[in-house]
Automatic annotation (TrEMBL):
Key words of the record: Transcription, Transcription regulation
InterPro entries recorded: Homeodomain-like_sf, HTH_AraC
Domain HTH araC/xylS-type: 1-97
Gene3D superfamilies the UniProt entry points to: Homeodomain-like
Name of the protein this chain belongs to: HTH araC/xylS-type domain-containing protein
Source organism per UniProt: Cryptosporangium japonicum
Amino acid sequence: MVAAIHRRPESPWTAAALAGLAGMSKSTLNRRFLATTGLNPVGYLTRWRMSVAASRLRDRDEPIERVARSVGYTSVYAFTRAFHPERGMPPSRFRQLARAPRTG
């Protein structure tokens, strides 16, 4: 099930769909996920999506709208609302800082 999340972060995963994929109830999946990762399945999905998005923002020259869609968000607004708490800044600022030349 984690492999499915990693392969297809853009899929419209729900807790019920992930539990079905894992062959267990939502409550059992939630308990096991919390014990293993410290996150519930949807929290893990969000963190993974933001990790993929951060890599794309840093390494590719694609529009933020395309990055948002690639990780399952249908609007830049929704993507930004998810990205900011995970990375501490909006996606555009993250891209700017991630690409800034390092001095030292």
